[in-house]
């Protein structure tokens, strides 16, 4: 795939690229560029995590070295448990994600790393160097949407984003990927990594998924997730309870999922109660006209998520 084909493929998903021109340069000037996304091992991955990972999977299939950072020391700093249980969670998350990655034809193409594999003395010296060029307010603001409330005012909440920035530098990342709440951290990396002797990364940002309640972003703390390890029964129960008001296109989680990752992954038209849509816009139009009922939409998303998860 050439640079334009890669970008067209990425843009099937609603995504921000900082910047497209620099991404083209990375693809054209590097025989095997590196991309990455980082996650705290803190419980089962949900489809929001997976949606954010799609660009990394696509880039891996296009020939990139693709790293999934299971950020154990970040989880420790963010009060997600002690290292022993964090490592067990990381193992489970890797298995969950790889199960789906294989279905996408990228099995074995992802390089799973723990932070403790490389976050050594030399690494933390770089974190200290970075702390001298990034003011506390910048670091704290970049953490606002990432850190749990319980540690929001702790010193670790200011160290955490600096660690993320240095991760990108130390791992040699050309293209950093994350959900939109990672944007401020990635901007810190773009603005400051060169000061530490590293390359300036490109950043890709996906959109956060709406949770099953139709009110909040998908989050374990809100109990509104569809997890990657759902059983057929648990998935059916969650879909049945998902908020789905007839004709409403603003607060419908299922439409949101189709828009942000199910249609971008589909190579063929999708069926909804006997009607077919080749794009999200067609689905939204059918839904707004009440040509698809809530039970039909729920049955369709159950079918499409089962294909992905089970």
Write the layout of secondary structure elements.
Blueprint: H1 3-10, E1 15-18, H2 20-29, E2 34-39, H3 47-61, E3 65-70, H4 72-77, H5 83-103, E4 110-114, H6 121-131, H7 136-142, H8 156-170, E5 175-179, H9 183-192, E6 202-206, H10 232-241, H11 253-265, E7 270-272, E8 275-277, H12 280-288, H13 294-309
Parallel strand pairs: 2-3, 2-5, 3-4, 5-6
Antiparallel strand pairs: 1-6, 7-8
Helix pairs in contact: 6-8, 7-8, 7-9, 8-9, 10-13, 11-12
Describe the structure.
- By secondary structure, this protein is of the alpha/beta class.
- It has two domains: 3-206, Rossmann fold (3-Layer(aba) Sandwich), CATH 3.40.50; 220-309, Tyrosyl-Transfer RNA Synthetase (Orthogonal Bundle), CATH 1.10.240.
- The protein has helices at residues 3-10, 20-29, 47-61, 72-77, 83-103, 121-131, 136-142, 156-170, 183-192, 232-241, 253-265, 280-288, 294-309; strands at residues 15-18, 34-39, 65-70, 110-114, 175-179, 202-206, 270-272, 275-277.
- The strands form two sheets. A six-stranded mixed β-sheet has the order 1-6-5-2-3-4, sandwiched between helices. A two-stranded antiparallel sheet has the order 7-8.
- Helix 7 (136-142) crosses helix 8 (156-170) and helix 8 crosses helix 9 (183-192).
- The chain is globular, with a radius of gyration of 20 Å.
- The mean pLDDT is 94.
Strand content: 5-15%
> Ends: how far apart?
30 Å
Please report the first level of CATH classification, the CATH class of the largest domain. Alpha Beta
What is the typical, i.e. mean, pLDDT? 94
Number of domains: 2
How many strand segments? Answer: 8
Number of helices: 13
Strand order of the largest sheet: 1-6-5-2-3-4
Gross CATH architecture of the largest domain: 3-Layer(aba) Sandwich
């Amino acid at each position: 795939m050439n640079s334009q084909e890669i970008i067209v493929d990425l843009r099937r998903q609603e995504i921000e690229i900082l910047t497209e021109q620099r991404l083209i340069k990375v693809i054209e000037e590097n025989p095997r560029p590196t991309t990455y996304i980082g996650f705290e091992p803190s419980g089962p991955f949900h489809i929001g995590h997976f949606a954010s990972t799609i660009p990394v999977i696509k880039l891996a299939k296009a020939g990139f070295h693709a790293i999934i950072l299971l950020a154990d020391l970040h989880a420790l700093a963010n009060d997600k448990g002690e290292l022993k249980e964090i490592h067990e969670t990381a193992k489970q998350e890797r298995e969950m994600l790889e199960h789906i990655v294989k279905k996408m034809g990228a099995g074995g193409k992802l390089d799973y790393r723990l932070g403790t594999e490389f976050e050594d003395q030399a690494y933390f010296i770089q974190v200290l160097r970075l702390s001298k060029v990034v003011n506390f307010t910048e670091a704290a603001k970049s953490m606002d949407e990432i850190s749990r409330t319980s540690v929001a005012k702790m010193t670790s909440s200011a160290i955490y984003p600096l660690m993320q920035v240095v991760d990108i530098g130390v791992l040699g990342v050309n293209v950093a990927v994350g959900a939109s709440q990672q944007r401020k951290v990635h901007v810190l990396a773009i603005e400051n990594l060169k000061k530490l002797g590293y390359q300036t990364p490109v950043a890709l940002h996906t959109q956060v998924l709406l949770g099953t309640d139709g009110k909040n972003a998908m989050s374990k703390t809100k109990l509104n997730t569809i997890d990657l390890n759902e059983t057929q029964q648990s998935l059916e129960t969650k879909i049945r309870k998902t908020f789905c008001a007839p004709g409403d296109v603003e607060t419908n989680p299922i439409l949101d999922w189709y828009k942000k990752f199910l249609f971008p992954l589909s190579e063929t038209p999708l069926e909804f109660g006997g009607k077919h849509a080749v794009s999200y816009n067609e689905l939204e139009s059918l839904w707004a006209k009440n040509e698809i009922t809530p039970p039909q939409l729920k049955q369709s998303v159950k079918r499409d998520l089962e294909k992905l998860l089970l």
